[in-house]
Write a sequence for this structure.
């Protein structure tokens, strides 16, 4: 007997043997039992999922000698001829090659008026019906709307959107689904067992992934694999034969992404390229792997979302634990962009390499809840004084300086906030009068505003005769506060600067080397105009600004802050914690005020 391929040898001959389409077969069986058989059906779905097979079973159910029946006998002449495709009363027409109106008229419309030659009904099965021309569809309309009692139409298509709405409205539509991977693996395992082949389930899972939900494709690949391996194959051999990347490589690649190991990621890509895999399929494989990780992370208990065996599921769970959901979403976006670039690029290798490097170097996401938790823990470690009014004066306590053990100068520590630049020395504090106490104005440097109960006096231009470099240096903290009042972010950048020179109406602002970024931000056009405007208002005439980066402060720059008395340190620390600008910086940069 001649060799018969697996797809034909194991083709279902009864409704109950159609795999993965129970929603269709159950409806058709009920319609046959109740006599509610429509004169036209449309079977839509991807290739290889049983559309034409179900159409033949329905034709046998209608024309069987025992019919109409939900269990054709498959032994009578009508059933055997339909199964073999030789029945004169069941015409299978290929819509792709017979799509002209003349062909439809000659093969269908002219014969539809005649009664069946042998069977009970005349059945027309048109495959790939969406390939018919508009004229051919229009020629079908009248017959499809009022067909003879002995005629049934069954249309099959992989693209129902191309079928005319007037045709769709005259048919009962059934949507065939992709067959789950586990179902395909189980079916192939049964075929292999009965055929005498010994194939690992992991190898069958590789076939299932390549088949992508098509049972016919899976059975064709099964024939190819068994011919290659002589009856015993492993997953590695099957993947090599079919030109597919093994799942282990995808797991190793995502481990490299999790560990931010660029070298390992590049080595894996070079290995893939060296072994000659299709790079577009590699990118799709990465995207599918990320999808599986995302499903495991988003719904850990929904195992049916993954078409993987138990062993792979456990590996996915372990790897998914290394990522946040937002990380997987961003990685999927990069993989999608990489796949699109590979398809359109003349250098797909470079696109794949750069895409993998982007994934590895991507910064991890931080959940807002985690940030809030860390801030809450930080707040608990910091001693917060009783809440005072924003403008409430701070009363001087009668504490001996020698008994207060606190740091003399407090600093605000953060990964992004520059260290405060030294300002002019503080002036001696004049004790307030007992009869009319007034709050003392404290100088905390450019990054911390002093607490005061009185509004800031209107700033007047400096007399032109008194404009000197030393005078500008002394007034720099006040000018900086004015800048902060107009644009707080700019003021924070300029807090790292000091006035280094004044000559011919040009003011030079110097930044330390580590604050070059602050200099770049201050130099922006809109920022520079504002600073120049404020300086011009204070001096009383137009000035120009110059920005430099230096490692050595100018000779005329103010000395570092002198040690203050302990009571001043206490007040500065308290006011720094209450200052709204400091609070915004702490919240924005996850910083903290360091105490002794």
């Amino acid at each position: 007997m001649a060799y018969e391929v697996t797809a034909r040898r194991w083709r279902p001959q009864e409704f109950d043997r159609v795999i993965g389409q129970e929603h269709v077969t159950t409806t058709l069986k009920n319609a046959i039992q109740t006599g509610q058989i429509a004169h036209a059906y449309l079977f839509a779905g991807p290739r290889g999922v049983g559309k034409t097979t179900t159409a033949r079973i329905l034709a046998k159910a209608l024309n069987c000698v025992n019919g109409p029946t939900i269990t054709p006998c498959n032994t009578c002449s009508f059933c055997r001829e339909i199964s073999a495709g030789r029945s004169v009363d069941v015409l299978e027409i290929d819509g792709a090659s017979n799509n002209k109106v003349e062909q439809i008229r000659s093969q269908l419309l002219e014969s539809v008026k005649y009664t069946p030659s042998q069977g009970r009904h005349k059945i027309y099965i048109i495959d790939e019906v969406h390939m018919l021309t508009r004229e051919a569809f229009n020629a079908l309309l009248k017959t499809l709307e009022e067909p003879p009692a002995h005629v049934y139409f069954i249309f099959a298509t992989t693209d129902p959107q191309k079928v005319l709405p007037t045709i769709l409205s005259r048919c009962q539509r059934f949507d065939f689904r992709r067959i789950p991977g586990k179902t395909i693996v189980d079916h192939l395992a049964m075929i292999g067992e009965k055929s005498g082949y010994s194939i690992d389930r992991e190898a069958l899972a590789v076939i299932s992934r390549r088949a992508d939900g098509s049972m016919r494709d899976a059975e064709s690949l099964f024939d190819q694999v068994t011919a290659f391996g002589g009856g015993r194959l492993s997953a590695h051999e099957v993947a090599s034969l079919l030109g597919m990347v093994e799942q282990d490589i995808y797991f190793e690649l995502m481990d490299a992404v999790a560990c931010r190991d660029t070298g390992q990621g590049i080595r894996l890509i070079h290995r893939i390229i060296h072994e000659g895999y299709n790079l577009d399929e590699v990118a799709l494989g990465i995207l599918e792997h990320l999808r599986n990780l995302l499903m495991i992370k988003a719904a850990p208990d929904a195992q049916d979302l993954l078409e993987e065996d138990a062993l792979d599921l456990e590996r996915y769970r372990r790897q998914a634990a290394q990522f946040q959901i937002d990380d997987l979403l961003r990685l999927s976006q990069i993989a999608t962009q990489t796949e699109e670039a590979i398809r359109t690029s003349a250098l797909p290798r470079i696109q794949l390499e750069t895409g993998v490097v982007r994934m590895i170097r991507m910064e991890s996401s931080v959940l807002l809840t985690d940030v809030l938790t860390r801030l809450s823990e930080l707040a608990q470690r910091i001693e917060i004084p009783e809440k005072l009014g924003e403008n409430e004066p701070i009363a001087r306590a009668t504490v001996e300086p020698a008994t207060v053990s606190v740091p003399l100068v407090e600093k605000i520590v953060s990964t992004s906030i520059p260290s405060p630049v030294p300002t002019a020395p503080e002036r001696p504090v004049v004790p307030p009068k007992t009869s009319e106490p007034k709050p003392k104005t404290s100088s905390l440097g450019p990054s911390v505003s002093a607490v005061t109960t009185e509004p800031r006096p209107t700033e007047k231009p400096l007399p032109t005769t008194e404009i000197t470099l030393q005078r500008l240096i002394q007034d720099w903290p006040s000018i900086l506060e004015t800048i902060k009042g107009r644009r707080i972010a700019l003021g924070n950048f300029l807090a790292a600067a000091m006035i280094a020179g004044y000559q011919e109406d040009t003011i030079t602002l110097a930044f330390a080397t580590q604050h070059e970024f602050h200099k770049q931000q201050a130099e922006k056009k809109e920022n520079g105009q504002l600073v120049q405007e404020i300086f011009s208002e204070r001096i009383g005439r137009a000035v120009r600004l110059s920005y430099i980066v230096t490692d050595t402060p100018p000779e005329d720059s103010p000395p570092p802050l002198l040690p203050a008395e302990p009571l001043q340190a206490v007040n500065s620390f308290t006011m720094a914690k209450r200052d709204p600008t400091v609070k915004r910086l702490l919240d924005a940069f996850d910083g903290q005020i360091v105490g002794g």
Q: What stands out?
A: Residues 7 and 220 are 7 Å apart (CA to CA).
